[in-house]
Specification:
Layout: E1 8-12, H1 17-28, E2 32-39, H2 46-52, H3 58-71, E3 75-79, H4 81-97, H5 104-123, E4 128-130, E5 135-139, E6 145-149, H6 166-170, E7 172-173, H7 181-190, H8 212-219, E8 227-230, E9 236-240, E10 263-268, E11 273-277, E12 283-294, E13 304-310, E14 318-326, E15 329-339, E16 346-351, E17 354-361
Parallel strand pairs: 1-2, 1-4, 2-3, 4-7, 8-11
Antiparallel strand pairs: 5-6, 8-9, 10-11, 12-15, 12-17, 13-14, 13-16, 14-15, 16-17
Helix pairs in contact: 1-3, 1-7, 4-5
């Protein structure tokens, strides 16, 4: 990328090893690098920020600032609390109350880390933003930009980035996508970065204790009422605690004495019902998705395409045929049934290593 040398790039720095090495690599490549940490945590109390801030808490700011000082690059903390609340926290709660299971990291990537951060950075005169994601960006022969899976499959993060637009991709650099995690830690060690052995953050940053239902109960505008567990025929089996406590495919925590393992098959918010079935009932060979974003292709243009689809972050992917069934709707039919197709989660389509596009499961 010789024509990009000396261009100004803003690196989103979480205080972790991946984004720190991203900043280091770009400086080595000759870019004019600026480090930025996004302040997203909602509480002003420093103790609560420290406890709950995850990738954007106070310790993250301290670590990122220290790395920026080591690299000799300018460093800023930018306030994105309003954008994060509107596009991530409120969206997360609203989806659960509607009986769906959202992926807040995808919303954060699309609307906060890219849309809001990129806009501010372009205003600062930067040409690119960069992150420590394990993914690669390539411009295809068609002229379109597409994500390509990282060089090391087990670290690939393209699933959570499928909703990035062509404009956003054209202004983004992902320098760690060609490396494995061990190589990134080794680079950090050789560069003398203090975060070289810092453990990865695993939790949703604003719910570090994983108690999603507790968080929603405390922060939603009204109580989420209990309702009925029903079977596939509508027979009442018992009472549930509120639909925010459940997701499709769930077996544990139902507190139903059925004499056999049972699972959540469906959530019906309009009737406040949680539908219970057997293991076989949580498998499906077809799904519908909307809120489409196309990446490697402009769209299906009314036709169909053979792809591999991932229905959740940890899903290995499965062969399927996608066809357009509306202006913003695609039907995805799998060769083999898939377990726990979950409304609210993303389905992402791949052609080999490349992201074709994706949408939200309906």
């Amino acid at each position: 990328m010789d024509n990009g040398r000396k261009e100004k790039v803003v690196v989103g720095m979480s205080g972790g090893v991946d984004s720190s090495v991203a900043a280091y690599l770009l400086k080595q490549q000759g870019y004019d690098v600026i480090g930025v940490t996004m302040q997203i945590w909602q509480d002003e109390d420093p103790d609560i920020q420290e406890e709950n801030g995850g990738c954007c808490g106070l310790s993250a700011v301290d670590d990122a600032r220290r790395v920026a000082w080591q690299l000799g690059i300018p460093y800023y903390v930018m306030n994105f609390k309003t954008e994060f609340r509107d596009h991530v926290i409120n969206y997360f709660m609203d989806e659960y109350v509607r009986g769906r299971t959202p992926n807040p990291c995808i919303a954060c990537n699309r609307y906060v880390k890219w849309e809001s951060l990129l806009r501010r950075c372009l205003d600062m005169g930067a040409r690119y933003i960069a992150t420590g994601h394990y993914a690669r960006i390539e411009r295809l022969a068609s002229g379109r930009y597409a994500l390509r899976k990282s060089a090391v499959a087990q670290k690939d993060q393209t699933y959570a980035l499928y909703s990035l637009t062509q404009e956003q991709l054209s202004h983004t650099l992902m320098p760690v996508g060609q490396y494995g995690k061990d190589e990134i830690r080794q680079i950090a060690e050789l560069a003398g970065l203090k975060v070289a052995s810092k453990p990865d953050s695993q939790e949703i940053c604003f719910i570090p204790d994983h108690d999603y239902a507790g968080f929603i109960s405390e922060n939603w505008k009204s109580p989420v009422p209990p309702g009925n567990f029903v079977d596939l025929d509508g027979t009442i089996l018992g009472r549930h605690k509120g639909i925010i406590h459940y997701t499709v495919g769930q077996r544990k925590g139902l507190n139903l004495s059925m004499g056999r393992p049972v699972f959540v098959v469906e959530i019906r918010p309009e009737r406040n019902e949680v539908v219970i079935g057997d293991a076989k009932d949580v498998w499906s060979d077809v799904l519908t998705c909307r809120n489409l974003n196309w990446m490697a292709v402009e769209g299906l243009e009314g036709g169909a395409m053979e792809v591999t689809a991932k229905i959740r972050y940890s899903h290995k992917g499965a062969a399927c045929r996608i066809r357009q069934t509306g202006s913003d709707q695609v039907e995805c039919r799998f060769e083999e049934p898939q377990r726990a197709v979950t409304p609210g989660q993303a389905v992402v389509f791949y052609d080999g290593d490349y992201v074709v596009g994706g949408g939200v499961i309906q």
